[in-house]
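Quick start: read one record
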Amino acid sequence: MTSEAVAILGGTGPEGRGLALRFARAGVPVVIGSRDAARAADIAAALAPGDGLPLSGAANPDAARQAEVVLVAIVRGGRAGTGGLVTAPGLGLRLPPAGDGGREGSRNRAISA
């Protein structure tokens, strides 16, 4: 991995927190974005209390401006607040039920179909 900063917009939820920790533990600076800058800063501080991990928090637009790579971790129908077009390929995917007869890879085929 490189040392380029990563912003995770909508990063205060469980998915965003998990991504932030994984990147930060790999040495990648992470800016957690939120509609509420104070909430993002609090989450960043809580994720790495005294660990020296490269985590910070900011409002979504500020987080996006601070990073070379921007990830979106928002729920379906959510808004990142960047003022631009946001594409999140995982939003709206419909997966078959888990008990689909045990066909290996069937979820992957359903996604790529």
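The helical segments are 14-25, 37-47, 60-65, 106-112.
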